[in-house]
Design goal:
The complex is a heterodimer. Chain A is an alpha+beta fold. Chain A is built from 14 helices and 10 strands. Chain A has a 6-stranded mixed β-barrel. In chain A, a hairpin with a 6-residue loop joins strand 2 and strand 3. Chain B is built from 7 helices and 10 strands. In chain B, the strands form 2 sheets. A 6-stranded mixed beta sheet of chain B has the order 6-7-8-3-9-10. In chain B, helix 3 packs parallel to helix 5. The two termini of chain B are about 30 Å apart. The chains are: A alpha+beta, B alpha/beta. At the A-B interface, helix 1, helix 2, helix 11 and helix 14 of A face helix 1, helix 2, helix 3, helix 4 and helix 5 of B.
Chain lengths: ~400, ~240
């Protein structure tokens, strides 16, 4: 070995003793984070402006997606709210009924033919229809959606009553409306009067949270009064709700009813829900718009995250080249990028989910509430992670091509 | 001195393609044994860095063979060469190439953990390596908090922590003042005292000559002269 020149002591140690001990203390208590995680974390947080831009992108994307899907779920529920609350195993409906809001009428004789079918316990007429509500001041009117049903068991009664009761609807001119529509209908309290179809209507019961996605207020009343309000024939109905006898098979009864009433639709509540959802979500294009916006959100988020990871990787290219020169495998480099993507996803999702939950809470009492069930939240998290990892591909392509020789050239 | 840890035989390397192609290495043969510190000197463009890249398994020679600890690199796939580099070669670069977001000890740990070492073991070994280069008191400092000489010592600790057979240094003193350059070469000379390590240093810096066991001189892609350290020292002292 050649002269090392009496190798001098390389540095002064004493003045830095405390810093050294601090590092050793860390090690002694065992806080050693894997370097892969540390490197990804520090790379991510090194450029905070870029991180904020990325997070804004993810949050925008995920909130948009969350709200659109939450609206979708809310829409699904709101569309079938009447079917959900009807006391029915089967529905007898006019032919080609597409949704609950259909307004074709049955003439009433079908009820007795249905009652004659074995296994049928109860057949209850329900009448629905659009009409106008003239406000108490007599100057203006607004459309309402009238629901008339036999009061008592079966049929479609108002629920969530906060003032009055179903039996109050047996009184003359009695109707039930939702508290949230008071302003719209020009009333302020129980007992206020207005007009429906030139006939008097008096608020005898008040519900809470029964809102229509069409924004047209629901008005519940007795079957006969509903017929009178919309000038429907005396025995007519829009639907007959059917309760099957205990022990009877719903599908068997449905088949027999279909044979007995060949010109009408006999559908289960589930089928009716599905039909209503399909009509409103896909028949009208509303669902396509919601899905379109949601997909747009994902595309925007993916592009923003991809762009950020790509530029971050380009900025750290010499470091990736150094890693390759030191003998790092490509999977190790990919892991650094994927960890960055995952961290971005988790932080972005946490913010976005919080915003989404707040928006959902605020929307609770609106006509179209945003519903975020736990399965949707879990799905959104998986989607955010998937979106971020997909975004990492462009950055991975960059490091795949990185040449370690470039380190020696600098 | 022990058996050769890194060897190149009749290495030929062309760079570029078409009319712009140049022959960077012309049948170069050399070996560096354990316990030996060899300087590779020569003018710019003589092929020193290309030779370092070939010996470091970053470039594949057009012909000739490279052996690391007796294992030929011929026919190995790129990822196998990468594994070989990680297991047997430590690099020291002119501009250190430390990771600015990692502390000194984290920079050193990186060399171990990318090979699968557990974080706890990597931490202990990295601290030891930093103590070897007299930086035990600055393990938690970031590169920006270290002087140029200290940064290069972190780079040396990173290169030696995996106990590689060969340490290849590319102009390790070029960015340092005289005192720091001397200190860095002292560290490398100490590393080379261990027969488990062969140290090859590419340099233009005549101040490092006293640390060499041998000096190889390159010109136009060829090794043109080989001098033993005693002769070099005499020449150096005379000048």
């Amino acid at each position: 070995m050649a002269a090392s020149g009496g190798a001098p002591r390389l540095s002064v140690v004493d003045e830095h003793e405390s810093e050294a001990s601090a590092g050793k203390d860390d090690m002694e208590i065992g806080r050693v984070t894997p370097i892969l995680f540390t490197l990804a974390f520090r790379n991510l947080f090194q450029d905070r402006v870029r991180l904020i831009v990325t997070l804004v992108g993810i949050v925008f994307s995920v909130v948009l997606f969350t709200v659109e899907l939450g609206l979708f779920f809310g829409f699904q529920r709101t569309v079938t709210i009447m079917i959900d609350h009807a006391s029915a195993d089967l529905w007898i409906a006019p032919a080609e009924t597409k949704s609950f809001e259909a307004t074709a009428l049955l003439d009433g004789r079908e009820r007795f033919r249905a009652l004659a079918v074995p296994g049928v316990a109860e057949v209850t007429p329900v009448l629905i229809g659009f009409t106008y509500w003239r406000k108490p001041d007599g100057k203006s009117s607004t459309p309402v959606f009238l629901i008339g049903s036999q009061l008592g068991d079966g049929g479609l009664q108002p629920w969530n009553l906060i003032e009055g009761s179903v039996s109050d609807l047996t009184r003359p001119q009695a109707v039930a409306i939702d508290r949230s529509y008071f302003d719209r209908l020009g009333v302020s309290e129980l007992g206020d009067s207005a007009e429906i179809g030139d006939q008097k209507a008096r608020v005898a019961a008040v519900t809470k949270g029964i809102r229509s996605f069409t924004t047209t207020p629901y008005v519940f009343t007795s079957l006969d009064r509903a017929r009178s309000y919309i000038n429907a024939p005396p025995s007519s109905a829009t639907y007959f709700t059917v309760r099957v006898a205990p022990g009877a098979n719903v599908e068997d009864v449905r088949r027999q009813l279909a044979n007995a009433l060949p010109n009408l639709e006999i559908i289960t509540s589930d089928q009716f829900r599905q039909r209503s959802r399909s009509y409103w979500l896909f028949g009208t294009g509303a669902g396509a718009a919601l899905f379109g916006s949601a997909i747009l959100g994902i595309i925007v988020g993916t592009v923003i995250v991809a762009q950020t990871l790509y530029s971050s990787t380009k900025d750290h290219l010499s470091e990736f080249a150094t890693l390759r020169a030191m003998g790092s495998s490509r999977p190790f480099l990919y892991k650094v990028i994927v960890w960055q993507a995952l961290m971005t996803a988790v932080i972005g999702f946490a913010i976005a989910a919080s915003i989404g939950l707040i928006v959902a809470r605020v929307s609770t009492d609106t006509a179209l509430p945003i519903i975020l069930p736990p399965v949707l939240i879990a799905g959104l998290f998986a989607l955010t992670v998937g979106m971020s990892i997909a975004s990492a591909f462009s950055a991975m392509l960059v490091v795949t091509r990185v040449d370690p020789v470039t380190v020696l050239a600098r | 001195m022990s058996e050769p840890l890194i060897e190149g035989k009749d290495i030929v390397k062309y760079l570029g393609t078409g009319p712009g192609q140049v022959q960077a290495l012309r049948s170069v043969t050399l070996s560096v044994s354990g316990g030996e510190l060899v300087l590779l000197m020569g003018p710019s463009g003589s092929g020193k860095t290309t030779l370092l890249s070939v010996l470091g398994c970053m470039l594949t020679p057009n012909s000739g063979t490279v052996r690391i600890r007796g294992q030929s690199t011929q026919g190995l796939r790129p990822e196998q060469l990468t594994d070989l580099r990680r297991q047997h070669i430590g690099f020291i670069f002119q501009t250190y190439h430390l990771f600015p977001t990692l502390t000194a000890v984290e920079n050193v740990r990186l060399a171990l953990e990318m090979g699968g070492e557990r974080p706890w073991n990597a931490q202990a070994r990295a601290v030891t390596a930093l103590e070897t280069v007299s930086l035990g008191h600055k393990i938690n400092s970031f590169p920006r908090q270290l002087s140029s000489g200290e940064q290069q010592r972190v780079a040396i600790a990173r290169a030696i922590v995996g106990k590689p057979a060969a340490i290849l240094a590319d102009e390790p003193t070029a960015a340092l003042d005289s005192a720091n350059g001397h200190a860095i070469m002292s560290v490398l000379a100490n590393v080379a005292k261990d027969s488990a390590h062969a140290v090859l240093v590419v340099t233009h810096d005549p101040r490092v000559i006293p640390f060499a066991d041998r000096i190889l001189h390159m010109e136009d892609g060829r090794l043109v002269e080989k001098e033993q350290s005693a002769t070099i020292l005499r020449l150096h002292e005379r000048s």
